[in-house]
């Protein structure tokens, strides 16, 4: 059902745009689990999701990567919105005959289309995993004091205002800033203000953020794609995660690093306070690029797909718990340390060793 070009497979959407995609894992017809991965800001369908081939074969996993509108080889969408991102996923799944239900994994800023799917098409989702998801600073349930303390919140709001009122000026400011910076590669990759020490090690062995190079950002169409994606993600939504009806059967997971400098873990815990049935996996020394850490992708798949194989599940209702005497919890592939008082709050299907 997909149309193919010389460089990639594509599907034609109802509005005439093309979405490019690639497939991985076991053949779709033989798969027990079908997963659509939603890439983040400045990324593409060629992102690296390094789950082991042995696990993918063992579980029978089919993976579908696609270029969101304007990224990679997909056509841009001048009317991009949260709802249009959801519609793209629906049409992609329909045309490729994925089936009545599938799984989603949303990475970083790919989380906003994923939240949109939980809002608008929950009946089609077998489970959802968010990996280092961003938060929208307009969500009413977020504590104002935490937003004020987080410099990223102010930077994002400033960027939204400039993007709406003077996009040409914003493009000029980006180019001007690049000229001032000494870096010759990505404008992000060398900045420890955005990444933890573990993230910096990851960037040494991955392709990083190819759309954020000085050369790419000078291209107006690339800049416009990034700006429109930014505005759809951080603009005002018609809902927030706190409004959603999430149950244990929803099978929703959030994976986050405690040293994430892009999205502070405290904001993620605020989401959990409103949605206590989300399975929360916090990596103590993890930064924003945890999806690239060894073993993380395997752990994500096991937790998402295998019943009663929860990697780490936690609900932080009281920040004071963090000062309690800690205890060790052994989980598949990793050992983490968690507050002992949290044990009473965890569901019975979580096993402590």
UniProtKB/TrEMBL annotation:
It holds the Pfam family Hydrolase_4. It comes from the Eukaryota. Residues 30-291 form the Serine aminopeptidase S33 domain. InterPro entries: AB_hydrolase_fold, Hydrolase_4. PANTHER family: AB HYDROLASE-1 DOMAIN-CONTAINING PROTEIN (PTHR45763:SF44), HYDROLASE, ALPHA/BETA FOLD FAMILY PROTEIN, EXPRESSED-RELATED (PTHR45763). This is Serine aminopeptidase S33 domain-containing protein.
């Amino acid at each position: 059902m997909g149309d193919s070009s010389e460089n990639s497979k594509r599907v034609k959407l109802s509005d005439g745009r093309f979405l490019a995609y690639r497939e991985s894992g076991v053949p779709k017809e033989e798969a027990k689990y079908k997963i659509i991965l939603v890439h983040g800001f400045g990324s593409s369908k060629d992102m690296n999701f390094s789950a082991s081939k042995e696990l993918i074969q063992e579980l029978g996993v089919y993976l579908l990567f696609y270029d969101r509108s304007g990224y990679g080889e997909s056509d841009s969408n001048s009317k991009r919105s949260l709802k249009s991102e959801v519609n793209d996923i629906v049409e992609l799944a329909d045309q490729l005959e994925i089936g009545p239900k599938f799984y989603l994994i949303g990475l970083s800023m790919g989380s906003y289309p994923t939240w949109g799917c939980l809002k608008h098409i929950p009946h089609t989702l077998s489970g959802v995993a968010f990996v280092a998801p961003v938060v929208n600073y307009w969500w009413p349930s977020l504590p104002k004091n935490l937003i004020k303390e987080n410099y990223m919140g102010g930077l994002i709001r400033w960027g939204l205002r400039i993007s709406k009122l003077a996009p040409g000026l914003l493009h000029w400011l980006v180019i001007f800033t690049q000229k001032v910076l000494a870096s010759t590669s990505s404008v992000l990759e060398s900045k420890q203000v955005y990444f933890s020490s573990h993230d910096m090690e990851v960037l040494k062995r991955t392709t990083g953020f190819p759309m954020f190079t000085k050369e790419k950002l000078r291209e107006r169409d690339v800049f416009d794609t990034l700006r429109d994606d930014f505005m759809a993600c951080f603009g005002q939504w018609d809902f927030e995660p706190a409004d959603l009806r999430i149950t244990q059967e929803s099978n929703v997971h959030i994976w986050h690093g405690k040293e994430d400098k892009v999205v502070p873990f405290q904001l993620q815990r605020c989401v959990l306070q409103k949605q206590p049935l989300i399975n929360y996996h916090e990596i103590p020394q993890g930064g924003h690029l945890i999806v690239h850490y060894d073993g993380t992708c395997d752990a994500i798949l096991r937790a998402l797909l295998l019943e009663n194989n929860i990697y780490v599940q936690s609900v932080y209702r009281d920040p004071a718990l963090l000062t309690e005497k800690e205890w060790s919890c052994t989980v598949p592939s990793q050992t983490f340390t968690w507050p002992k008082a949290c044990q009473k709050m965890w569901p019975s299907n979580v096993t402590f060793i």
